[in-house]
Design a protein that fits this description.
Blueprint lengths: L1 E8 L2 E8 L9 E3 L3 E9 L1 E5 L2 E5 L4 E4 L4 E5 L6 E8 L1 H11 L11 E2 L6 H8 L6 H20 L11 H17 L6 H7 L4 H12 L3 H19 L4 H7 L5 H12 L3 H9 L1
Antiparallel strand pairs: 1-2, 2-9, 3-8, 4-7, 4-9, 5-6, 5-8, 7-10
Helix pairs in contact: 1-3, 5-6
């Protein structure tokens, strides 16, 4: 078993686990220190915990309650790869209050099987290692937890129209993003400006803006980059770095997905 930490923050952690155990290896009992939601990216294995037993498979999500014991084994195949999202009890309970209707909610099943509604999240998880680590990872961790909790609780939490106070607080965060879009931002900083907890801020931001803070920031950076490419002869790399992208390959990938062409092709078309 090898583990590689992808990112971490207050109350959450994302790690990649690669297991090479097979039928010849004995399983052993472990304990979930925090609440766990693990996306199975490759391989299959047997998982047993207090809420039952399941055969985990690619596309499925392993579910674990904090403080409970579990055991994993490979009865019929060798190896697996998972991306594990761990949440502290306070953060999990805050998300559960909104998404599952009760902060006391606990997983009643060991697994959430693969399903089409979760495909987009799985794509984000697969490409997480290539993204802007800090804010993207936390954004994804909270979205994943909310989606899984709402799905396992058989329905999302209710939310009405945003209040005037909520809109004002999100407006303050939006202005900050606009002024600081080129530098590294994180949810804690933005939530502090809005005087909200990180999860409350994420939910409120989505209700007011229609996207997550990270998605909004990424879109803003891409739009600014596109304007620079169309209006100046600055090198593509300079545009990328000055608009807040940490490396050129990530910028090219994001730009192509957003505008349907490479930055260089986009510039040529605009100049014609």
């Amino acid at each position: 078993m090898s583990a590689r930490e992808i990112a971490r923050g207050e109350g959450w952690q994302v790690s990649e686990f690669v297991c090479r155990f097979g039928p010849q290896d004995k399983s052993f009992e472990e304990q979930h220190a925090d609440f766990a939601i693990s996306a199975v990216l490759a391989g299959s294995f047997h998982y047993r915990c207090g809420s039952g037993q399941a055969l985990l498979h690619p596309g499925a999500f392993l579910l674990g309650n904090a403080g409970t014991c579990f055991e994993c084994g490979h009865d019929h195949s060798t190896g697996d790869r998972c991306m594990a999202f761990h949440l502290s009890a306070p953060l999990f309970e805050e998300i559960a209050a909104g998404a599952a209707g009760s902060y006391r909610y606990r997983f009643a099943a060991p697994m959430l099987p693969a399903q089409p509604a979760l495909t987009a999240l799985l794509v984000d998880i697969e490409t997480l290692a290539d993204a802007d680590r800090n804010m993207a990872a936390e954004d994804l961790c909270l979205r994943l937890a909310e989606t899984v909790l709402a799905t396992t609780a058989d329905g999302p939490g209710r939310s009405g129209a945003p209040s005037a106070s909520e809109r004002r607080r999100i407006g303050n965060a939006l202005r900050h993003i606009e002024m600081q879009a080129e530098r590294a931002l994180d949810l804690a900083e933005l939530a502090g400006i809005a005087c909200m907890s990180k999860y409350h801020f994420l939910r409120s931001f989505r209700r007011v803006v229609g996207s997550t803070p990270y998605q909004y920031l990424l879109g803003l950076r891409l739009r600014r980059a596109a304007i620079r490419l169309a209006a100046t002869a600055d090198p593509v790399a300079s545009v990328a770095y000055e608009c807040g992208f940490g490396d050129l390959s990530t910028f090219n990938h994001r730009f192509r997905r957003q505008f349907g062409s490479s930055p260089s092709t986009f510039r040529r078309r605009r100049s014609n």
